Amino acid sequence: xxxxxxxxxKYLQIAGYIRDQILRGDxxxxxxVPSERQIAAEWKVSRPTATKALEALRLQGLVESRRGSGTYxxxxxxxxxxxxxxxxxxxxxxxxxxxxxxxxxxxxEIVPAPVHVVEALALEGGQRAVRRHRVxxxxxxxxxxxxxxxxxxVAERAPRLVERERIREGTLAYVEKVTGRRARHAYDRVAAxxxxxxxxxxxxxAGPAAVLVVRHVVCDMDERxxxxxxxxxxxxxxxxxxxxxxx
Length: 247
Fold this sequence. Notes:
This protein is of the alpha+beta class and 247 residues long.
């Protein structure tokens, strides 16, 4: 159990920890979350604090209380798995996807890098890059398309990048292991746009339709870009939330 910090109220830290478990897929729709009594005992907090933690999750639409039974995870397709949750799950379980999710690799190749990829990875002009494109399904429903880009030279030490087979421990974890380059931090840029024809087809949408696009850059310990990824989410499978302190 992680230690409590002073920056946020205790109940929000507890709610955030359970929320991360839900987003990672460790707690599935229909699973029971810890009770007030369990939270109070495990986190060494008062019952009112535990009550407020569960109430915060209810207000976010993540759980529901059933009289005389307990509190359970709701089924929500408008919350996507961000890279942060997937990294956490891979570190803790050795698997990047929960049981009800799977990825289909539809392209794994070395191609000329588009301009925005050249900029994101700080490549020399005209350089080639590894393109690894996947469709992610949740309960056999497509909820995300994702493309990971790496400098072409990385494929010399990480040949699985250009194979259309799942890398079950996670692509980034594999690249770290075989290259010795450790990821230090990442940042995301989030925007919306109209779906392309290919995206409309994958998601089964009638255009025009808006999609969420997350551009994700991972830097290594020397502050060099290691991975650039683009994830696209259909209208009914995305939302963006950020919690911060005002006072």
